[in-house]
Design goal:
Blueprint: H1 21-35, E1 38-48, E2 54-60, E3 66-74, E4 81-90, E5 97-107, E6 112-119, E7 122-129, E8 134-144, E9 166-167, E10 173-174
Antiparallel strand pairs: 1-8, 2-7, 3-4, 3-8, 4-5, 6-7, 9-10
């Protein structure tokens, strides 16, 4: 992602020291492109058994600069669940991902630990279950990527159609702008 481009406006109105209109609007377009180079998604994944390194999230490394992931993992057969936030970034060669996990909360006992890597050109989030069970993982991700963004990136929950009205447990309606 490139740095913000400042438009030169000159010292006085019409003194000829500012950017020409064409250059100014190119800078504006570039600045807005940088704002919209983020995609927000949600996904569900399951891990089975206590085998380490089970993939619960995957995205192309060449379209990944940095990301924030909120993961809620739970064991549907018990009251045990945990929440964690992961912040990750990739190196310039797209060969290594560095990440930090924080804000972990537990209800019951811990059920899994997490890891991240790059394999086959993809950034992956892995779980290492601490018990032999089927675990459910809900993942909210905000990925900032390098490249040309697509205008109007779709933001919705997996499995819900656009313009759908959802509600919370307190029956507060949640809807998209187009409803």
């Amino acid at each position: 992602m490139s740095a913000q481009e400042v438009i030169l406006v000159g010292t006085l109105p019409n003194d000829g020291t500012g950017d020409p209109l064409r250059v100014a609007f190119q800078k504006i377009n570039n600045n807005f492109s940088n704002l919209f180079a983020t995609t927000i998604t949600t996904s569900n994944a399951y891990s089975i058994g206590n085998i380490a390194g089970q993939v619960i999230f995957e995205t192309p490394a060449n379209a990944f600069s940095q990301g924030i992931f909120n993961i809620r993992s739970n064991d549907p057969g018990t009251v045990d669940s945990q929440n964690i936030t992961l912040k990750a970034s990739i190196n310039n060669a797209n060969t290594n991902v560095k990440w930090t996990g924080y804000a972990t909360t537990f209800d019951g006992t811990p059920i899994t630990s997490y890891d991240m890597d790059i394999v086959g050109g993809n950034v992956r989030i892995l779980v290492n279950p601490l018990r032999d069970a089927v675990l459910f993982h809900f993942i909210s991700s905000e990925v900032t990527f390098v490249g040309i963004p697509e205008p109007g990136l779709l933001i919705q929950l997996d499995g819900y159609a656009p313009n759908n009205v959802m509600s919370t447990e307190n029956l507060v309606d949640i809807a998209t702008e187009n409803v």
